[in-house]
Zinc finger, C4 type (Teladorsagia circumcincta), 372 residues
Amino acid sequence: TDFSPIPAKRICSEDRGRLDMISPGQGMKCRVCGDSRAGRHYGTIACNGCKGFFRRSIWEQRDYTCRFGSRCQIVQEYRNRCRACRLRKCFEVGMDARSVQSERDKHKKKSAGQSSPTPDEGAGPSTSVERQTDNMIDATEDCDFSEQFNKLCRVDVTIEAAFKQPGIVAKRTPPRWLALERLINLEDVGIAWCRSFVLCVDWAGLMSDYKDLVFPMREMNMNEGEFCLLKVLILFRVDHRLSEEGKLHVIKVRNKYIDALYHHIQHEYPSYSAIEVAQRISKLLLLLPSIEHLSQQEDDNVQFLALFNLANLNGLPYELHSATKQQIRDEDPTQVNEVTSNNVDMKSYGDYDASQCGNSYGGVPSFSSGIL
């Protein structure tokens, strides 16, 4: 059945008899969005928000169109995200458009009658307090929350401006990764990406040592192919804990990718002589110690945060950053796993507010893993 677009004036109401089967103490949750503050409205159990939304849609004969194929799930927290699916849900649970129309006709007759209604006329299901409540809900429901979500993130900026002023991409609100009872949509992904971008930029800004890596890469004008091959060379590095056979295999694979780097530079810079190609390879390989130093420093920083419980760090994130040192300490008990002032410079943290990270390291990506 095709539900989009949904002309409110054309949809017939469903059987109202199902309401008579509900006792006053059962099922008093909104059948549209699940709000627990619900009552009987227009032939079904509904909250004041969905009641007002349905009434406005019928009175004003609004037509809504779903952008996601009429498959949106309507829950209380995000019931305003898709009005087309919300109206469709209203009809599915038994809201009666004729009840709304008869209520409107009743209001018209009252307005055409006495200017001061008697107490008997004023009494009824719709009291003055309820009407005032509906008016306040109407004002809230009329707000286009999709526009507010669009204000939470912004991607129409240059990358230079985003890195200089990350706050224009997203506000520094605590990241929220909630298990919602619905499928995420494109807006959720966009907002999460923007907030994660700001989080990454702020985290990188705390580490001034990245300049020792970024500036040489910028001066060399490193291209994407060189960058990818450099990451492969970092991956295939010889470790003292490997067996002799393992070391030989890693060296063999590493030499293969060094040859690939040589041919790549020859292809990208055909005017280079063999000596110039070798010089460029040497400059690229000289970056490896800086990368390893940054990776080690990040591990130390993470353990520092765990030591003073600055980021509620535990579980998998801590194990990833402490695994290497733990293995070394197990092999050589004389090695002491320390975080010294040389590794963690508290001045680099400045006045940074840890609450910007949501007081959890779970949302902070690993830059060492990003480089590797």
In short: Strands lie at 6-7, 38-41, 44-47, 63-64. DSSP finds 15 helices and four strands in the chain.
